[in-house]
Structures are given as C-alpha cells and as structure tokens.
C-alpha cells in the first residue's frame, strides 16, 4: 500500500487507529479455547467487528512466536485473512528485527514478501546496512524505532551522541539511507513532550505511535504536537481495545473501545 492510499483511507474513515493484535490465550474469552485455532478465531472476530473504525492492524510477532508452530500458523492465517477480506487495511508486522545485511534480507523476505505485510518494525541499533535490506522492498514500509514508549527509552535513546540525542541521530541519519522514502518511525505516545522535536526533523514522515490505552499516553497531546498536514500518524492500541471483555460479547466491547478512539480522532481531523 502506498502512503497516498493510506492517507486516503484515513480521510475516508476519519480514523488513524491501528489495532494491536497481541493475543494472549490467558486473556481471551474462555469459550474460544474450545475452537481449533483460538488465536485466529479471536483475531477474526476482532477484525470483523472493528475494520470500519481502523486503518491498520499490528500483530506483534512475540505473541505468536510464544505459541510455537501453532502461533506462527495463526499469524499467517491472520495476515491472509486481512489481505483477502480487507485489502484496504495497512498491515504492520511488529517484529522489531534488524541484523547484518544478509540476515535482514531474510527477515524482510519472510514478513514483507512471503507473509505479505505492508510494513515491519525494525530496530536501528545495527545501522544502515541492517535496515537498507528492508527498505529495498518496493511498495513496503520500514518502521524504525526512534523514541519508544517504555521507560527504558531514557537509557540510550535520549542520551547525547556527538552533542545530539541518539533518537535524533537515528531520525537524521536514516533520512540519507537508500530508499528512505519507505521509512516510517515509532514514537511512543507516552513521549508527547518530544513530538515537536521529532516533527522538526521528520516533518513529513508517518509515525507509528503506540502507548495510548494500557500505557496511558494522551491521544490529544500526540495529535497536538505530532499531526502534520497529511495526518502522518498511526496511533496503536492493543490491550485497551482487544481485552475490553472476556465474555461472549468481547468483539462488540472491543468495537465500543475502538469507536471511542475513532470519534476522538475524528474530532482532531476536523
Ligand atoms: O513497535 C511497537 O509497536 C512498540 C513500540 C513502543 O515503543 N512501544 C510499544 O508498546 N510498542 C508495541 O505496541 C503495542 C502496545 O500494546 P498496548 O500497550 O497493549 O496498547 C505492543 O505490541 C508493543 O510491543
């Protein structure tokens, strides 16, 4: 999916909501555990109930890898279901990969080609030659961790390197990498104070913003400081939406939570 198509979907739905599909079998409704593939059944119900309110879905691979082969199959079924039934959705493999170039190429192939996600999250720690293999995939997007939502973001990302915070070095340096037009960045919703600085370096880039909902980030602040004239934001919530209820009505309740966020987003879109 191109950035222009994503922007058009955002305008059409008045939403820049990304729903995190972080499935934990201890948290899903117990009645689903009797089905053949509870992870997929859960995702399918959540997607069917929320697709008109969201423009993106982000399964985090950890929640699938944790269940071995069964989890991996459920992830494949989920991305296939999205691509087949809701091709207008922007899909994010939240895998946080990145390795020497030869290895990154294989990660990129697995997620962007074989599974056919629109994008993947990538850690920039190993530098240019670890990220460029992802950027080489045309029509796909590489979402680099810039300033993450967790407390540990202050351990390295805000420390100065040659007089400038590391996350700023990441933003500035990556702009010069090959195919950098395919870059997006992760900036946590809990770091609203930093959005103006981020925007001064990457005014036009899309930002994936996790951390509203369970982590307590403010959607209002993210929009105030992070939105650009193309919107430029995908705001993710996982637990705050998908675990709204453990009863039979779980998908309806997830929809109700998604609707609250979408309505707030619509108010900021004007
Ligand atoms: O890359 C991410 O999506 C990510 C980056 C970050 O800085 N913080 C962050 O929470 N995430 C992911 O976003 C999701 C947040 O989930 P909730 O806190 O349940 O809404 C999880 O899948 C996290 O792994």
Poorly predicted segments: none
Average pLDDT score = 97
- Strand/helix succession: HEHEHHEHEHEHEEHEHEHEHH
Structural class: alpha/beta
CATH architectural arrangement = Alpha-Beta Barrel
Q: In CATH's first tier, which class applies?
A: Alpha Beta
The number of distinct β-strands equals 10
InterPro entries: Aldolase_TIM (IPR013785), OMPdecase_type-2 (IPR011995), OMPdeCOase_dom (IPR001754), RibuloseP-bd_barrel (IPR011060)
Keywords: Decarboxylase, Lyase, Pyrimidine biosynthesis
GO molecular function: orotidine-5'-phosphate decarboxylase activity
EC number: 4.1.1.23
Structure description:
With 270 residues, this protein is α/β, with parallel strands linked by helices. The protein has helices spanning 3-13, 38-50, 62-65, 68-85, 101-114, 128-135, 153-156, 166-174, 195-201, 219-226, 239-242, 250-269; strands spanning 17-20, 56-58, 90-97, 119-122, 141-147, 160-161, 164-165, 183-187, 207-210, 233-237. The chain has a single domain, classed as Alpha-Beta Barrel (TIM Barrel), CATH 3.20.20. The strands form 2 sheets. Strands 1-2-3-4-5-8-9-10 form an 8-stranded parallel beta barrel, surrounded by 6 helices. Strand 3 (90-97), helix 5 (101-114) and strand 4 (119-122) form a beta-alpha-beta unit. It starts with a helix and ends with a helix. Residues 20, 22, 60, 94, 121, 148-150, 186, 188, 210-211, 213-215, 236-240 line the site of orotidine-5'-monophosphate (OMP).
């Amino acid at each position: 999916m191109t950035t222009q198509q994503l922007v058009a979907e955002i305008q059409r739905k008045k939403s820049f909501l990304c729903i995190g599909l972080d499935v934990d079998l201890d948290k899903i409704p117990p009645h689903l555990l009797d089905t053949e593939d509870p992870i997929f059944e859960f995702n399918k119900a959540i997607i069917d109930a929320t697709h008109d309110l969201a423009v993106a879905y982000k399964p985090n691979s950890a929640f699938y890898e944790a269940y071995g082969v069964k989890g991996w199959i459920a992830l494949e079924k989920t991305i296939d279901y999205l691509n087949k039934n809701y091709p207008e959705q922007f899909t994010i493999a939240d895998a946080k990969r990145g390795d020497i170039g030869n290895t990154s190429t294989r990660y990129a192939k697995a997620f962007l080609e074989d599974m056919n996600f629109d994008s993947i999250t990538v850690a920039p720690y190993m530098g240019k030659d670890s990220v460029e293999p992802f950027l080489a995939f045309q029509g796909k997007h590489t979402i680099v961790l810039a300033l993450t939502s967790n407390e540990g973001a202050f351990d390295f990302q805000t420390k100065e390197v040659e007089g400038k915070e590391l996350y700023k070095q990441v933003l500035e340096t990556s702009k010069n990498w090959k195919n950098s037009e395919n870059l997006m960045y992760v900036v946590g919703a809990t770091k609203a104070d930093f959005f103006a600085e981020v925007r001064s370096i990457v005014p036009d880039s899309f930002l994936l913003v996790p951390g509203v909902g369970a982590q307590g980030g403010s959607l209002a602040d993210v929009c105030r400081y992070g939105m650009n004239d193309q919107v430029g934001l995908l705001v993710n919530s996982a637990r705050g939406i998908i675990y709204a209820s453990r009863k039979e009505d779980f998908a309806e309740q997830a929809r109700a939570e998604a609707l609250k966020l979408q309505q707030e987003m619509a108010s900021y879109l004007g």
